[in-house]
Design a protein that fits this description.
Length: 461
């Protein structure tokens, strides 16, 4: 209750004006608060029900979007073993696959590994200083010019090359041997296209001799791999998409057998996710519209027409979809997907995983086509679900409408508060006027009493 006190009570009347005003305002406010509380409670009750159903439909939408993808049921497992393996491992390569990689066995021979180019300079005595000049370094189709200042040491030359050529993928270092210091130039990138070329441009004979003394210690080379007799090359030691979706990580030369197989559990999971999400959506509607006969208590959306329509549409579409699958020879007996039977025939689905896995193993293409794609099981069911939780879906719009009702209630409360403030001021003014009048009457009464007392005393004399 708001505080309508204003600093003093009834001086002339003795009435607790603040308390009286508060009680009168509370009596005026009570029916309006009761009305607004009822509106707010009803709106929040419905909002919770619509929210729980919308959340379940959102989860179903997510599961259906995943199943719609053409590769949703193309999960694969991969294993590899090298010819020199003694424990079923692969010392030659590692293999990974994505969805849709063609299943089968691949004979792979790593003919050579990719390597990075490296140059090593002749020995230079420690403390040697070089005259000014210019060098040119190129790698991978790019080149830079390096300025060498007068009096540069071999360490200074190393730093000058690093400053200019690091962006190309070149790393220069100094090596020390019994003969002196050596300039080492290495590529950080493998592959024949990343060979390093260091050239003398101008300067003294000492700088020219330094460049001329550089010797190759490691050649730049591409990886070469034979897959079922077909040779492919790569600048790096990872071969991607020579077989669609397969990536090979090369370890050493040698032969290996890579086996790609369907992953039954992973391929089944998108269908299982849809079944679980569909069942959750059906149960969410049932919960939000249920009626407890024992306690005579309705739920938030008991008797709600929109929810009945949503449940009916979902079940109707599911019946059509299951009928369509059966027409293709993919009935409950063959793939294990059906509505729950009596006595729990609540419209939910059950999936026999053993039957489904066996059907996928026997005819993966047909089942995948039936469930995925723009015209498959998932896409058609998603069309119904999107009508409820899409941007302009009916649940989305209804949620917005209920939130607008709650905002309107809040605005009405503000209006009531303003009116009650005005009412309180009016009551205060009236009581203050009454108090003032009563104070005046009390003063007059006291004066008259004094006069009458004085008059009575004179008459007795």
């Amino acid at each position: 209750m708001a505080d309508y006190s204003f600093g003093y009570g009834g001086i002339g009347s003795g009435i607790d004006i603040s308390s009286m005003v508060s009680q009168l305002v509370a009596a005026d406010r009570a029916p309006q608060d009761a009305r607004l509380n009822k509106l707010e409670s009803a709106a929040k009750f419905k909002l919770s029900g619509v929210g729980s159903v919308s959340s379940a439909f959102d989860a179903l939408k997510t599961a259906l979007e995943a199943l719609k993808k053409s590769d949703a049921m193309g999960a694969r497992s991969v294993s590899s073993v090298s010819a020199d393996s003694t424990a079923g491992t692969d010392n030659v390569l590692g293999a990974s696959v994505g969805k849709g990689t063609p299943a089968g066995q691949y004979q792979i021979e790593v003919l050579s590994l990719a390597s990075a180019h490296k140059l090593m300079g002749a020995a230079v005595a420690t403390g040697t200083l070089f005259d000014a000049g210019k060098l040119s370094l190129s790698m991978g189709g790019e080149s830079v010019t390096i300025d060498i200042a007068t009096g540069s040491s071999l360490a200074d030359i190393r730093s000058a090359i690093n400053d200019k050529a690091a962006s190309l993928g070149v790393q220069v270092s100094l090596m020390t041997s019994d003969d002196g210091q050596h300039l080492s130039i290495a590529s950080t990138k493998t592959g024949a296209a990343n060979a390093i070329s260091l050239a003398f441009v101008e300067g003294g004979g000492d700088l020219s001799a330094l460049v001329g003394g550089m010797q190759q210690t490691n050649a730049a080379a591409d990886a070469r791999v034979s897959i079922d007799g077909l040779v492919t090359t790569s600048a790096g030691n990872a071969i991607a998409d020579a077989v669609p979706g397969m990536t090979l990580t090369l370890k050493k030369t040698g032969t290996s057998t890579v086996t790609v197989a369907s992953d039954a559990a992973a391929s089944r999971k998108p269908v299982e996710d849809v079944v679980k999400a569909y069942n959750a959506a059906i149960k969410a509607i049932a919960s939000a519209t249920s009626y407890n006969k024992e306690t005579d208590t309705p739920s938030s959306l008991t008797g709600d027409g929109q929810m009945r329509g949503a449940a009916g549409q979902l079940r109707g579409m599911m019946a059509d979809l299951l009928g369509g699958l059966a027409a293709q020879g993919l009935d409950a007996k063959s793939i294990g997907l059906q509505t729950r039977a009596y006595p729990s025939n609540d419209g939910t689905l059950v999936l026999d995983t053993a039957k489904f896995d066996a059907a996928m193993a026997a005819n993966p293409g047909k089942i995948t086509a039936a469930f995925t794609g723009s015209d498959g099981f998932a896409a058609r069911l998603a069309g119904v679900v999107n009508g409820y939780v899409g941007t302009d879906g009916s649940f989305t719009l209804r949620t917005k409408g209920i939130n607008d009702q709650l905002k309107d209630v809040a605005r009405q409360r503000e209006s009531v508060n303003l009116r009650m403030e005005a009412t309180a001021k009016r009551y205060q003014a009236q009581f203050v006027a009454l108090d003032t009048l009563m104070a005046q009457m009390s003063t007059t009464s006291n004066y008259l009493a004094q006069q009458l007392t004085a008059l009575s005393a004179q008459q007795r004399l």
